[in-house]
Amino acid sequence: MAELDQLWIVRHGESVGNVAAAKAETDGVESIDLTDRDADVPLSDLGREQAAATGRWLTGLAQGNRPTVAVVSPYRRTAQTAEAALADTGIPGSVDERLRDRELGILDLLTSLGVRKRYPDEVTRRNRLGKFYYRPPGGESWADVALRLRALLGDLRRDHTGERVVLFGHEAIVLLLRYLIEGLDEPTLVRLARETTVANCSVTGWAADESGRLRLVTFNNVDHLHRDHTATTREDEVDAEPV
Predict the structure, then answer these.
(1) pLDDT tens-digit profile of 69-80?
(2) Which PANTHER family is this protein grouped with (predicted)?
């Protein structure tokens, strides 16, 4: 990644799916009350406010520090976040499906209780394989997502030499970018995922050091939301998995 000057990733704003998932877990039910497919879940009202605040942060950056290009997950909540955040910046954007959220197959729209009740064998299999390599039927493992992100990073390095790139993605994407860019090992990534809930519209970023290597400069940062007096949320994605 030596050819990029700076790289950021913004997690999408709070979605109606985040709200529904939190309620379902609190209520102790087995499934999440959503009719949209995951790709079509929109932002909540608060999520739109968070996205607008992120846009004010971007427009407030000095011209020499502002991203020169944006790449966006095709999912609706992420596209809406990018649209609001980029509206007044003049930053050109494109969509790349490799930034989409992790697909959980048969576990989609289930709470952690629902997974334990309906698919106890999957709980056993997940516990045996571990978070990184476990692939639910019809879904992806974290390793699968890392493979598509590795390809995306290679393309960014080739196509945007010396540029400053901002990505709009999802919680798992943020964590797996740290894994890839910083060369984390599996235990470190799993511990990071266990200890961290990536905040909605948080910013994680890397900048090239004197050797040209990207180094982490900020992680899960929501200072721009606090400055804008916008409420922060740290809500997991819609899909639960065995624990």
Answers:
(1) 999 999 999 999
(2) BROAD-SPECIFICITY PHOSPHATASE YOR283W-RELATED, HISTIDINE PHOSPHATASE FAMILY PROTEIN-RELATED
